[in-house]
Design a protein that fits this description.
The chain is mainly alpha-helical. The chain has 3 helices and 2 strands; from the N terminus they run ααββα. The chain has one domain. The mean pLDDT is 79.
Length: 82
Amino acid sequence: MRLRSDGVGARRRARVRSGAAADRARQVGYFNRALAQVTEDWACPELYNQRAGALVPNPHTPLLWTQANLRLALAALRETAS
């Protein structure tokens, strides 16, 4: 993941590389929660609706900005794992 060299990128790098165990645990927890929302065909739905007692993704799937954010989260997770 390539980060910008301005202040925003520097702050993000500091957060990603902090190495604090509590931060890492929260990062993994949030990432796992995001993965649990992905559909069987690897699409990221906008939301789920309840139909006949089952949760089904709404028609606005895949939501591309959600997929992009998930990709960024994966890159950050890889960076903190190394």
